[in-house]
Design goal:
One of its GO terms (biological process) is rRNA base methylation. GO terms for molecular function: rRNA (uridine-C5-)-methyltransferase activity. About 25% of the residues lie in helices and about 25% in strands. It has about 350 residues and is α/β, with parallel strands linked by helices. The protein is built from nine helices and 16 strands. Bound molecules: S-adenosylmethionine (SAM).
Length: about 350
């Protein structure tokens, strides 16, 4: 296999790295046509980024760590062995530059570094420690040149399966939040879609379908930092955002001022979401859904059937749960208008799908 420089043969991260762009796109389209077969006639071609964006696009990484006796290594764990990924060709240049700077951090056990994460310009050193540690000796001068704007120390005593915990966050250097290419604030643990230009196209498509405007009510479930909420508000629609993470909601309040925001799981909040949507006539209700891989909670699918929206857009990162949810929504009277796959993660086998539906 002809791998680009820095791509370790043992890494399992990119299932499509041995494929041409055409072959990878064909496999992704084939998977979506199989997984979403009941709506085969409504599946659009895969939307892909420009060819030069198929490498160097990953701005959000979570990497395991190992001390090799000379310095820290960062990569992926295969069983108990670390496959170093400092030079992974998918990493954005800033990720590679930052990882290089973190290599000479102090050794364990004094500095029990478990993970390093980067979310755009916000970097975090996750230490397996319950008590606040002395900040590590680090030459901060290189961070700015690397494109890092904030460096955090996060204490997580049981760091392992979960990267972030409830322990303290301490800003070691820089500013606590940055702005993404769309101008929106994000923090060190924010969810951020890869390839912002392609993500913006998916939002354009959702916005054209929902056509939210004054007098409408748009419920944005699993709203994160409020990237989509900001769109609905800019069109003059009333908007409600629901999100489990308090820090994401705090940013959503600033990214999309003037929205009603509810913290909690969408399942727990289903009665309040229903009450709010019901205050608009059905034809003026809109819903935008962007759940994690597990898809919609049963209470959410039931609520959307019980109090239907006139138009609905659903951006999904897992075609299996999307199929289950589309079947539930169809049974509730919705009609699937179109399904558009988006290649947000070139060279991997991931593919996201934007489903557009009309209400009963
Ligand atoms: C795929 S991300 C989408 C975020 C946002 N729409 C965006 O594009 O930036 C899913 C979001 O759902 C949140 N989340 C996960 N489970 C949730 C739940 N049960 N209820 C509400 N929010 C949840 C996560 O914190 C995350 O922000």
């Amino acid at each position: 296999m002809n791998l680009p420089p820095g791509c370790p043969p043992r890494c399992r991260g990119c299932a499509h790295r041995g494929l041409t762009e055409e072959a990878s796109s064909a496999q992704k389209e084939g998977w979506i046509r199989t997984a979403l077969a009941p709506w085969e006639d409504r599946i659009a071609p895969l939307r892909s980024p420009d060819p030069q964006r198929r490498l160097g696009y990953r701005e959000r990484v979570r990497l395991a760590t190992r001390w090799d006796g000379k310095g820290w290594r960062f990569g992926m764990l295969l069983r108990d062995e670390l496959v170093p990924l400092e030079d992974c060709p998918l990493h954005a240049p800033r990720v590679r530059a930052a990882l290089n700077l973190f290599r000479p951090l102090p050794p364990p056990p004094a500095f029990p570094l478990a993970f390093v994460t980067l979310t755009g310009a916000q970097a975090t050193l996750v230490v397996k420690a319950s008590h606040p540690l002395e900040p590590p000796a680090l030459d901060f001068s290189g961070l700015e040149a690397a494109g890092v704007e904030g460096l955090w120390l996060h204490h997580h005593p049981t760091a392992g399966r979960r990267i972030f915990g409830r322990g303290a966050w301490c800003l070691l250097w820089g500013i606590p939040e940055s702005r993404n290419p769309l101008g929106l604030l994000y923090g060190p643990a924010s969810f951020q879609q890869a390839l912002p230009e392609l993500y913006a196209l998916s939002l354009d498509q959702a916005e054209a379908h929902l056509a939210p405007g004054p007098g409408d009510g748009t419920g944005d479930l699993y709203c994160g930092d409020g990237a989509s909420l900001a769109r609905w508000r800019a069109r003059g629609s009333e908007a409600l955002g629901v999100e489990i993470s308090g820090s994401a909601l705090d940013r959503a309040a600033r990214n999309a001022p003037g929205c009603i925001l509810l913290q909690g799981t969408c399942g727990q909040r289903a009665p309040q979401i229903r009450g709010w949507l019901a205050s608009f006539p059905q034809g003026m209700r809109r819903a935008y859904l962007n759940p994690p891989r597990t898809g919609l909670e049963t209470e959410v699918a039931a609520m959307l059937t019980d109090c239907p929206a006139g138009r609905l857009a659903y951006l999904s990162c897992a075609a299996r749960t999307l199929r289950r949810d589309l079947e539930l929504l169809e049974a509730g009277g919705y009609e699937v208008v179109s399904l558009t796959p988006y290649d947000f993660f070139p060279r991997t086998d991931h593919v996201e799908t934007l489903a557009l539906l009309e209400g009963p």
